[in-house]
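Whiteboard transcription, Tuesday session. T.W. wrote the C-alpha cells on the left side:
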C-alpha cells in the first residue's frame, strides 16, 4: 500500500500587514535607559529596530524622539530579538493600540438612553 504524503505549507511569518522599509533614527526609553536606534522596517502594528548594544527582550519601550513624526510618542513591547553580531542586535516591537479619541470610555446604559432621547427629539423637531 502506497501512502502519499501531503506537502504542508507552513506560514512562518504571522504578520497580516506588509512591512515598509525605512531608515529612521529614533531615541527610545525603557525604564531608566535611553538609547538611539534605527528603524529597519515597520507596519501598522510593529517595528523592527537595530541597536548597537543591550538586550530588551520582554521590555516595554517608548519612542521619545524621531526623525519622522510618524513614530513620535509610540510605545510597545519587545517580542523578539536576534543577534547579528556581538555588538549589533535587531528586535521586533509590537506597538500598543492607540485609544480611539471619540470613545475613551465604554458607553454606559445612561449614554445609550441619552442618545435615544436625542434621536426622538430630532425626529419630533423635523416631523
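and on the right, the sequence the group agreed on:
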Amino acid at each position: 500500500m502506497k501512502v502519499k504524503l501531503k506537502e504542508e505549507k507552513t506560514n512562518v511569518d504571522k504578520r497580516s500587514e506588509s512591512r515598509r522599509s525605512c531608515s529612521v533614527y529614533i531615541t527610545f526609553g525603557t525604564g531608566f535607559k535611553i538609547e538611539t536606534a534605527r528603524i529597519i522596517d515597520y507596519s501598522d502594528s510593529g517595528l523592527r529596530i537595530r541597536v548597537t548594544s543591550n538586550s530588551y527582550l520582554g521590555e516595554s519601550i517608548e519612542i521619545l524622539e524621531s526623525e519622522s513624526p510618524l513614530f513620535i510618542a509610540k510605545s510597545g513591547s519587545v517580542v523578539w530579538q536576534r543577534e547579528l553580531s556581538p555588538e549589533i542586535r535587531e528586535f521586533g516591537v509590537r506597538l500598543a493600540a492607540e485609544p480611539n479619541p471619540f470613545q475613551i470610555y465604554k458607553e454606559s446604559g445612561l449614554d445609550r438612553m441619552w442618545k435615544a432621547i436625542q434621536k426622538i427629539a430630532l425626529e419630533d423637531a423635523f416631523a
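Someone added at the bottom: The domain at 20-95 is CATH 2.40.10.220 (Thrombin, subunit H).
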